[in-house]
């Protein structure tokens, strides 16, 4: 659904009162390139996801101006940061204005005494850390998309970090931020009103409400972040196991050990190892009895990492682990952002190479339920493959979310042959996604630990997951966004409005 | 309501992990009936458009990027870093090909977007597809070639960028690029830089001097020629040198590029030349990538030698011994076409480390993937303001190291970098000039297109 040409002209004319001409993009290519993210995407229906225009604001005031205009004119607004999300928060469903914040990428302040940085939300974490390195500091928010995702997107999706078991996740690392409401008003959200307060008990805790909303409640524009000393030492052992059960028992023991420098552990299941044997130089030569892997990572000062590492090695050995050596351990961890999902690893069942896109379905699952959820998910993908080679099973990871080992980000990686996508294939996929979410819920998990749950298929189950909480979501949405202009169509939030008022 | 209980576990070949393509996989894997995938989906229209013909050639390359969606290329792209415009990213350049295949875009819709690329190659290296399937499949993402192909299609369809059209028309007229300087650009003056050096014409080995160095920064070829003379390397100048044709190829003027290449090859043949010394990284790309594509076997006996590699060899062999201390605090700018496109980064450092007196604050080559002068791919002709911003960013990185001099090995980078350097008090010097200085050579020539 897009605007009529005359309406676009009207919107552009209004936007020119707050933006320069080169900040308003209306060409077809500008719009096509802001209508997709790496999340599962019906590429054969690309044009249906196009916005009517995109804007590139450079300040909170400009974002506020754009939202005021959109609210007055009742035009949908979709915020876009890195556009690297694995749910489709940044994909417009009803046309409108994409607010692309990439130009708001300045470092406003580095406070060495209080250990904070204040940045525009369009900055990338790697680029920020290049600047922080000069001060021996780090902002340890480390998603798979670390080299390209932006701080604002991390806030909008309430992101998950690979090393969150030691440093916390985005919600813990972002102390406060400026947030533009759908009406164009600006508020500051944090703990209390403070910019650099890590714990307040004053009033409602609004920070969490304005994180992870997938752009349905407004746009974060400037954030104050918690900084840590850049770790002196990193230890990232990879261990091999004869079978999944042994690896599973080991990862649980490692996570429960309570080692202070423990930053996370990852379990690779048998499907993942089979996937890596397709063409991974590290794993093809491994003997056949290597069927599952565990990696753990520790960060800190050298003396504390050394001692903590010894303890974890002892635990691993007691669980039948075989250390894969320094080269694989250091190399694989260093390459963690690049290594595991490339289109060229796509295969038909009989081994033909076809370019496939990577789709990662995640859930938050308790340790005790990980094996059951894994079995259920592989069966769902196997069922897709019984019908067609459009889908491929790239195996599963389970990552610790917390320092106690209570729950895991459980993900199944699915290759999709996008060149062959049509409505039938897309329909199968949407159903599979719903089944994947349902399996996580059936095992007392949450639909997503990391990406969000607003995509076609899984989103149907959000009201079941949240129960009465979903009604509260509707009430909040209506109160904050009276005209449903922010990212309409996402999270079933249209239900907050009488049918005729939805734009 | 969808299923909530565990699905029943099936008992077939797909219920257990396997690696597709292994010899001992169960036969059952080939017995499933395919219900969806077939041949690649037909193009949107049976009478293919020129855009769809391009897409037919590049569709798999484009999907390899489109499907990946990682976008790790973005923060290393020099243009993206300064414009922060997602339409001008390596990802968009591939995605547009998919959109053209679908009939969503015409080349006229996107031609101007493809201006925003210096063809530095950073995106190709940073691509996870290159990094993690490169060794195994000998695979490399080919953004630069995609950009060149779309630019060529635009020209072919009569969609011109005004600055490029004029530039190439004037190049065609002058047989050299119309670089601005006091020396008039013309065939009569292409050897003016060598005044007083007494260089022969032709012979088995010639020194090819790019347009910027021949007419604007003449100190570079003068330094190269005199250092080579000092080392006893025998070489001449070309009988009739034209522009290498590379810039035309980069901007999409394919026919002109080939015509210029033909002329140069014919000229080498007429002087019995089989060995070409190249001081400019852009020429080096033309001679090692474009010319072999144009001429195939006919070109097989031409040896192309990059001067900075030759100099490193001469230093190693003791045929050059720099002894005059050069008291400067420097850092080195890895030219994109050497470091990112050709993997050449050791030899320039070898040369610099041989120069006495230098304090060298080096920045590793991988960090420099995200550095660029903004001088390549025709960007300065169409968008000088972007070149200026990119160069300023590069010089700022040097300034943060506390150096007084930024050394480059690419004449085309030196003009934008020198402009940016002036603002922060950083001198931009060519590596060949610096080496000549430490060999006691009075280089002469000009570094800014002015009178020597």
TrEMBL record, chain A:
It is an enzyme of class 1 (oxidoreductase). The keyword Oxidoreductase applies. It holds the Pfam family FAD_binding_4. Its cofactor is FAD. Residues 47-230 form the FAD-binding PCMH-type domain. Its EC number is 1.1.2.4. Gene3D superfamilies: 3.30.465.10, Vanillyl-alcohol Oxidase, Chain A, domain 4. Keywords: FAD, Flavoprotein, Oxidoreductase, Transit peptide. Belongs to the FAD-binding oxidoreductase/transferase type 4 family. This is D-lactate dehydrogenase (cytochrome).
């Amino acid at each position: 659904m897009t605007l009529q040409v005359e309406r676009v002209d009207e919107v552009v004319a209004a936007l020119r009162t707050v933006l320069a001409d080169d900040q308003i993009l209306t060409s077809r290519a500008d719009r096509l390139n802001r209508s997709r993210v790496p999340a599962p995407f019906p590429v054969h229906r690309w044009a249906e996801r196009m916005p009517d225009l995109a804007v590139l604001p450079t300040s909170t005031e400009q974002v506020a101006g754009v939202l005021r205009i959109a609210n007055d004119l009742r035009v949908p607004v979709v915020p876009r940061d890195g556009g690297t999300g694995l749910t489709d928060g940044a994909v417009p469903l009803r046309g409108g204005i994409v607010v692309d914040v990439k130009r708001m990428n300045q470092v406003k302040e580095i406070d060495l005494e209080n250990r904070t940085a204040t940045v525009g939300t369009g900055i990338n974490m790697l680029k920020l850390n290049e600047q922080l390195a000069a001060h021996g500091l780090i902002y340890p928010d480390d998603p798979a998309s670390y080299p390209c995702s932006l701080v604002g997107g991390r806030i909008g999706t309430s992101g998950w970090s690979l090393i969150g078991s030691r440093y916390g996740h985005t919600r813990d690392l972002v102390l406060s931020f400026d947030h533009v409401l759908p009406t164009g008003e600006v508020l500051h959200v944090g703990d209390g009103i403070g910019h650099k307060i890590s714990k307040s008990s004053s009033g409602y805790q609004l920070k969490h409400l304005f994180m992870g909303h997938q752009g349905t409640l407004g746009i974060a524009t400037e954030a104050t972040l918690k900084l840590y000393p850049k770790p002196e030492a990193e230890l990232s052992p990879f261990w091999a196991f004869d079978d999944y059960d042994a690896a599973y028992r080991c990862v649980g023991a490692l996570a429960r050990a309570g080692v202070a420098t423990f930053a996370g552990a990852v379990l690779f299941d048998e499907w993942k190892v089979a996937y890596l044997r397709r063409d991974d130089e590290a794993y093809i030569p491994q003997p056949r009895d290597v069927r599952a892997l565990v990696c753990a990572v520790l960060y800190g000062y050298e003396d504390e990492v050394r001692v903590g590492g010894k303890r974890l090695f002892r635990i691993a050995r007691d669980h039948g682990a075989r250390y894969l050596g320094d080269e694989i351990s250091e190399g694989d961890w260093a390459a963690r952002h690049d290594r595991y999902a490339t289109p060229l690893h796509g295969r038909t069942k009989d081994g033909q190479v076809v370019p496939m896109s990577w789709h990662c379905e995640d859930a938050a699952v308790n340790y005790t339920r990980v094996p059951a959820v894994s079995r259920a998910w592989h069966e769902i993908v196997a069922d897709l493959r019984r019908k067609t080679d459009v889908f491929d099973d790239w195996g599963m990871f389970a990552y610790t979310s917390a320092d106690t080992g209570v729950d895991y980000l459980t993900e199944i990686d699915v290759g999709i042959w996008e060149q062959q996508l049509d409505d039938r294939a897309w329909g199968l996929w949407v159903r599979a996604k719903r089944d994947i979410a349902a399996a996580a819920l059936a095992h007392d998990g949450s639909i997503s630990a990391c990406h969000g749950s607003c995509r076609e298929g899984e989103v149907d189950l959000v009201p079941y997951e949240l129960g009465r909480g979903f009604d509260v979501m509707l009430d909040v949405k209506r109160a904050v966004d009276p005209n449903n202009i922010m990212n309409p169509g996402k999270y079933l939030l249209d239900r907050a409005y009488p049918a005729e008022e939805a734009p | 309501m969808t299923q909530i209980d565990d699905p029943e576990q099936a008992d077939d070949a797909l219920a257990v992990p396997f690696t597709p393509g292994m010899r001992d996989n169960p036969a059952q894997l080939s017995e499933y009936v395919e219900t969806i995938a077939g041949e690649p989906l037909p193009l949107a229209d049976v009478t293919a458009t020129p855009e769809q013909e391009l897409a037919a050639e590049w569709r798999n390359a484009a999907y390899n990027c489109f499907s990946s969606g990682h976008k790790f290329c973005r923060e290393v792209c020099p243009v993206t870093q300064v414009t922060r415009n997602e339409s001008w990213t390596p990802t968009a350049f591939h995605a547009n090909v998919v959109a053209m295949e679908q009939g969503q875009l015409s080349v006229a819709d996107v031609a101007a977007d493809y201006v925003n690329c210096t063809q530095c190659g950073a995106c190709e290296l940073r691509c996870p597809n290159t990094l993690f399937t490169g060794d195994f499949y000998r695979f490399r993402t080919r953004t630069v070639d995609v950009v060149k192909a779309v630019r060529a299609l635009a020209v072919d369809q009569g969609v011109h960028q005004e600055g490029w059209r004029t530039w190439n028309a004037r190049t065609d007229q002058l047989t050299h690029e119309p670089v601005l300087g006091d020396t008039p650009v013309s065939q009569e003056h292409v050897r003016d830089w060598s005044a007083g050096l007494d260089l022969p014409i032709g012979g088995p080995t010639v020194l090819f001097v790019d347009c910027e160095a021949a007419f604007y920064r003449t100190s570079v070829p003068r330094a190269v020629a005199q250092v080579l003379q000092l080392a006893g390397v025998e070489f001449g100048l070309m009988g009739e040198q034209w522009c290498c044709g590379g810039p035309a190829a980069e901007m999409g003027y394919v026919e002109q590029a080939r015509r210029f290449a033909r002329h140069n090859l014919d000229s080498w043949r007429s002087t019995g030349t089989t060995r070409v010394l190249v001081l400019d990284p852009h020429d080096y790309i033309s001679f090692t990538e474009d010319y072999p594509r144009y001429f195939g076997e006919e070109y097989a006996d031409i040896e192309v030698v990059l001067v900075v590699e030759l100099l490193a060899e001469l230093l190693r062999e003791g045929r050059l011994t720099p002894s005059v201390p050069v008291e400067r605090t420097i850092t080195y700018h890895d030219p994109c076409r050497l470091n990112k496109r050709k993997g050449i980064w050791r030899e320039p450092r070898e040369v610099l480390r041989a120069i006495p007196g230098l304090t060298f604050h080096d920045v590793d080559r991988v960090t420099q993937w995200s550095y660029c002068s903004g001088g390549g791919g025709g960007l300065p002709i169409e968008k000088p303001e972007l070149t200026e911003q990119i160069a300023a960013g590069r010089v700022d990185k040097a300034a943060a190291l506390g150096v007084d001099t930024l050394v480059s090995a690419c004449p085309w980078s030196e003009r934008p970098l020198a402009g940016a350097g002036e603002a922060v008090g950083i001198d931009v010097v060519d590596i060949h000039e610096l080496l000549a200085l430490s060999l006691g050579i009075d280089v002469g020539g000009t570094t800014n297109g002015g009178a020597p």
